[in-house]
Amino acid sequence: MGNLVCKGIVKKYKDKVVLNGVDLTIEEGKIYGLIGRNGVGKTTLLSIMTAQNPANEGTVQYDGEQVWENRKALDHLCFSRELNALTTLGPNTQKIKEYFKIASIYYPNWDQAYAEELMKQFGIDQKKRISKLSKGMLSMVTITIGLASKADITILDEPVAGLDVVAREDFYRMLIEEHANSGRTFIVSTHIIEEAADVFEEVIFLKDGNVLLKENTVDLLDRARHVTGVAEDVDLVTEGLHKYHEEKMGRSKGVTVLLEEGQSLKENAQVTVQPLSLQNLFVALCGREE
Amino acid sequence: MSGFSRTMKYSFHQAWQRTLVSLGVSVVYSLYFMLMDDTLSLKEFIQDFGTYLLFVSVLFMTIYGLVSAAVNVPEQISFGCVRLHAALSLSLSNIFTMGFVMLILVGYYAVMPQFSINDNLMLFLHGFEGMLAVTGLTAFLSVLVMKFGRYAYIGCIIVLALCSGFFAGFMSKMGNDFLATANLEFIFAVASAAILIIGNIALAVYSKYIEVKA
């Protein structure tokens, strides 16, 4: 196993710059959550990391080796993409078992028995055509491909989209079990942040075509504060700190801050200081600017 | 397993499926003509079946080749296949299909007591050249399909239909004897090989720009 290192990734679609010099290191053995708003370039970044799309600039290396057109490096990577039942071409024309057959050709560590076991757990008949599956079932196939690939770095793009809460719980359990058993690295992109927060060892926030932050989830939440109170008091308490998000309601004010090492909030009994959930922190950091 | 072996395995998997479809369609097509034409003798029917199989499989290789460009190549890349190999699999699967069809034809004529394989040597030769040319042409047209999407499909199909029409017209006017001259055989063989090589080079060069989409 090794690290996946992206340096200076730039991706443009005509004049639109989607990724603007992304530097990112994915360390082995961790579960990452990739979080960003719609259209921020999450899937594009993941595609470039796995050589599925070419970047305009920059390099991606796995364990020191270039990923692009390099089978040796690609053998360690799996990017299980969201399937779309609406298209009439591609995997949709196949039965699930045929799709798995192709996966077994290309993933050197493919575990067919595990794939079958997962399908059984999800209650899906492998003889079904992909085009006949519901959105939730498509997610289950995506998850199965990712987990059964047994790739050292496995990337799951929106794996829980369309899954009900029970199935989502099942997925997180399977992910943690597999991670504990194999020590593989997982990158999971999702919009359902709150319930996944405990699963992610590290989170990556993507904003404006770049990585806003990449940090251990517990450490990040530990230094995030939401300060509310009368505007003057809040300003006093947060003086000298970078304020990420401000909400004003009459004389009251709410501010989100991320405390850097050595920083602290000034004492003031008139303000309320609360910790933030990952979702609220994401909204504060990546939400619309007021 | 090496990367190329995986591509071979994938192409082989695609090829036997295509051969089965081609064979099935040819059987239906031949039976339809036999039932429609009272004057057709069994011997003529047996002879014609081979021609139909060749025609249908060449047609299917072209269609499947173009569909593969938009479907199978990105699919392989999404599974971590090297682009050059994924692009090459387009031609490989056609070449395997060609091999399967040829084997079926050889077997078919070998078990028919009325015919010797020598009687059908020209059929095999033209079929072989046609398949080579189609494989190369498909690889070349695939670049257009991948670059311009559905509009290129329509364009390619119109071009292929026009080419087939012109060729059929040319053949009916000049007659099969025209093809029997040694020089033309040589020109056809070289042209087929050239199309195969140029088409595959074009596809290999273009493959680095392919983007896998959801």
Name the structural class of chain B: mainly alpha
Number of E strands of chain B: 0
CATH superfamily of the largest domain in chain A: P-loop containing nucleotide triphosphate hydrolases
Q: Specify the oligomeric state.
A: heterodimer
Shape of chain B: globular
CATH class of the largest domain in chain A: Alpha Beta
Poorly predicted segments of chain A: none
Going by helix content, strand content and strand pairing, the class of chain A is: alpha/beta
Mean pLDDT of chain A: 92
Widest sheet, order of strands of chain A: 6-7-8-3-9-10
Helix count, DSSP H or I runs of 4 or more residues of chain A = 9
Tally of discrete structural domains of chain B: 1
Can you walk through the features of this model?
- The complex is a heterodimer of chains A (290) and B (214).
- With 290 residues, chain A is α/β, with parallel strands linked by helices.
- Chain A contains nine helices and 14 strands.
- A six-stranded mixed sheet of chain A has the order 6-7-8-3-9-10, sandwiched between helices. A four-stranded antiparallel sheet of chain A has the order 2-1-4-5. Chain A has a four-stranded antiparallel sheet with strand order 12-13-11-14.
- The model of chain A has no long low-confidence stretch (mean pLDDT 92).
- With 214 residues, chain B is mostly helical.
- Chain B has one domain.
- Chain B has seven helices and no strands.
- In chain B, helix 1 crosses helix 4 and helix 5 (121-148) runs antiparallel to helix 6.
- In chain B, 38% of the residues are buried.
